[in-house]
Amino acid sequence: MKLGRPYSPPKRWVLNLVVMVFLTLNCGAQEASLFYRIDTEEIKNHRIKVTATLSPEAFPTAKREVGLPVWTPGSYKIRDYSRFLSTVECLTPGTEVVKTAKNRWEIQGLKKNQPVKLQYSVYGHELTVRTNYFTPELSLFTGAGIFVAPTPVNSENLADATCRVEFGPHEGDIETNLTSVGPGVYTAANYDELLDRPIVMGDLEVLEFQAGQTPHKLVQAGHRQYWGKQKSLADAKALVQTVQDFWGVIPYKKYAFYNLITDTRGGLEHRDSTVVMTGRFATREREKYVAWLSLLSHEYFHTWNVKRLRPVALGPFDYEEEVYTRSLWIAEGITSYYDDLLVRRAGLSTRKEYLKALSDQLNKFYQTPGRLHISLTDASFDAWIRLYQDTDDLHNSNISYYNKGAVVAWLLDTRIRKLTQGRKTLDDVMRTAYEEFSQKGFTEAQFRKLVNKVSGHDLSSFFQRNLDSLNDLDIQEALNYWHLTWEVSSKDSKPYLGLSTGSGPRAVVEKVYQGSPAAEAGLSPGDEIIAVDEVRVPETKPLSILDNLQVREEPYTFTIARLGRIQHKQVVLSQPKYRQHELKFQETDSAKEARWQEWLGPERSDKD
Questions:
Q1: Which pLDDT value is given to residue 359?
Q2: DSSP 3-state of 545
Q3: Number of H helices and number of E strands within the chain?
Q4: How far apart are CA 86 and CA 71, in angstroms?
Q5: Roughly what angle, to the nearest 10 degrees, separates helices 286-301 and 351-366?
Q6: Whole-prediction pTM value?
């Protein structure tokens, strides 16, 4: 039943109809190779109960072993979803369940033609786009963390395994792009499809629109009281149309945006849907709203770049092992270049706002010491052990392939335009890559060769410098081509300390930057800064004390607490090694304006 609706006993003819439907669905359930029933009686305690019936034909050998994925596509980290499963038992009498690996179970004692009937509990209370979160008000069902399958758990083994999911009695609406075959009953053509179509349940509002003669949904979940419904709907449609025009092809029959208004942030792409998370006041705060549009743009762009145009390693999938690629700078970095750019081209942000977004990417890159210690392609290869597993020193040894990849994509776009006198762009590269590789995937070498083909020039030296080496990026060519200046921001005038603290009531150091005054003085993550020259630091904004300090030769005495003991550190503040900068347009003329329009689209007035 729906949340908040009073219960009234059904009439007899309704009961008869329900029985007929149940019998029909039950018969159909047996046709699926993998059948799952989800019961939500314990959802108030963040648990669901899953009953899985797996046909004997779904197993490649006589051995009855099942497994659960250890990661989910789009998020390159081993998440070990099996740690959230409990009370795994077989419902067939005379059988035994034996755990054989961290994510595998063997069912012993079954006869040859008997299906595997398992029941287990899944706990979900981690509010991210790649994990399970179960509450009566809002639930996100992430297939990789729910649905066990015959081993090996990979695309090849499960390519012909038809799937069926049936929900028991539940409260709230259900939204998913799985094929609906009845109330609370859904099917998928195979296991890949099952895992790639998330399910959202709870108090939902569905906003529908057409784009490219194709139906789309903007599904709103969470606290919607302050959310600008009509504004977000109209802007989502404009953005979708702009991205569709970019690619020139629509590869799906329907699409859904699951917008979870949860005061968190994140996004995860799927083949014909995406899950994004945002804050309840985002439509009322311009900067946050543009960031939400950029997030929508990023995940929707992945519908083409990643879900279909992909590195060969990213499909077919092995859900039990890490898969390595040096091409995440293409999958995520190029997407990160286009997310803000397509918001601009859709007329949903101004040129000034776009330049700020690009400036933020550049500043983040130049302020990351790790850029000098790992190449972009190696950062991609190491995604499994670095980007998604942050440490207090990771910024000193790693670079984000999202961040550096976006900057390199801008430089590559610029280089192509310059070499071809504007006749070709990175846009052309991506569309051509989609035509050539969307059915089979690409290797790093194939993508580079395609860039050379589209541009008509050998860009091997560009790739070597910007992708494979530890050389710093040189943006001067791009500044000259786009008639931009890269000016020091007047806002960045504090003495440089070189650390960051947490947001709590105490000034606890979280990160120390390599080669900074803090590092030279021996300050360390975990230290609590108590005072500077015997002046207590403000508890809410401890580093604001720097506003009242000056760069000088003699050191300041920082009083800290480390492992419960008071210590004093002598810190010599300096000018920042890197100052915040801002991109700005040079004075315009008709030639510059024409070039800017080709890149950014025509200018529009600031949005309210």
A1: 98
A2: helix
A3: 15, 28
A4: 18
A5: 80
A6: 0.92
Query: How would residue 441 be classed by pLDDT, with cut points 50, 70 and 90?
Result: very high
DSSP state at residue 327: -
Query: Within 10 A of 152 (CB to CB), how many other CB atoms are there?
Result: 16
Instruction: Provide DSSP, 311-325.
Output: BTTSSS-BTTS----
Q: Determine whether 176 is exposed, middle or buried from the number of CB atoms within 10 Å of its CB (0-12, 13-18, 19+).
A: buried
> What is the pLDDT of the chain when averaged over all its residues?
93
Alpha-carbon span 324 to 7, nearest angstrom:
53
Dihedral angle sign, alpha carbons of residues 294, 473, 452, 599: positive
Can you tell me the distance from the alpha carbon of 456 to that of 454, in angstroms, rounded to the nearest whole number?
Answer: 6
To which H or E segment does residue 412 belong? helix 403-419
Query: Can you tell me the mean pLDDT for 93-113?
Result: 96
Mind listing the pLDDT tens digit for each residue in 266-316? 999 999 999 999 999 999 999 999 999 999 999 999 999 999 999 999 989
Three-state secondary structure call for residue 87: strand
* Residue whose token pair is 């994509």: 409
At residue 466's C-alpha, the angle toward residues 460 and 469, to 5°, is 95
Digit-coded pLDDT (tens) for 515-567: 999 999 999 999 999 999 999 998 778 888 888 899 999 999 999 999 999 99
Closest to 145 in 3D by CA, of 245, 35, 67: 67
**CA 477 and chain centroid, separation:** 31
Helix, strand or coil, per DSSP, at residue 504: coil
**C-alpha gyration radius of the chain:** 27
Characterize the bridge pairing of strands 163-167 and 185-188.
Answer: antiparallel
Across 63-102, b (16+ Cβ under 10 Å) vs e yields ebbbbbbbbbbbbbbbbebbebbeebebeeeebebeeeee
